[in-house]
């Protein structure tokens, strides 16, 4: 799910969380096979977030905002 309307605008319908051991390619393949566009962010528990190479400043700012909310 999404925490804020801006999350949907900048990052899509929800955050994509990788499973333990998933490569970026595996996550992207799973998401796109389900009919969704390539994710802007992929979250790796305990490791961090991978941003799409085409992410813009607004998307990076929203990802940072979500990180700040989740950590505090």
Give structural notes.
The chain is of the alpha+beta class and 72 residues long. It has 3 helices and 3 strands; from the N terminus they run αβαββα. Helix 2 links the parallel strand 1 and strand 2 (41-44). The protein is globular, with a radius of gyration of 12 Å. The model has no long low-confidence stretch (mean pLDDT 88).
Strand content: 5-15%
Please give the share of residues in helix.
Answer: 40-55%
Mean pLDDT: 88
Q: Would you report the number of β strands?
A: 3
Order of helices and strands: HEHEEH
Q: List unreliable stretches of 5+ residues.
A: none
N-C termini distance: 19 Å
Principal-axes shape call: globular
Lateral arrangement of strands in the main beta sheet = 1-2-3
Largest sheet: 3 strands, mixed
SS element count, helices: 3
Nearest-angstrom radius of gyration? 12 Å
Please state the structural category. Answer: alpha+beta
Could you give the topology of this structure?
Layout: H1 5-11, E1 16-17, H2 24-33, E2 41-44, E3 48-51, H3 57-71
Parallel strand pairs: 1-2
Antiparallel strand pairs: 2-3
């Amino acid at each position: 799910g999404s925490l804020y309307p801006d999350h949907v605008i900048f990052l899509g319908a929800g955050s994509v969380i990788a499973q333990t051991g998933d490569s970026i390619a595996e996550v992207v393949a799973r998401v796109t096979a389900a009919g969704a566009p390539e994710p802007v962010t992929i979250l790796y528990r305990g490791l961090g977030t991978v941003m799409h190479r085409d992410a813009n400043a607004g998307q990076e700012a929203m990802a940072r905002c979500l990180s700040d909310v989740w950590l505090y």
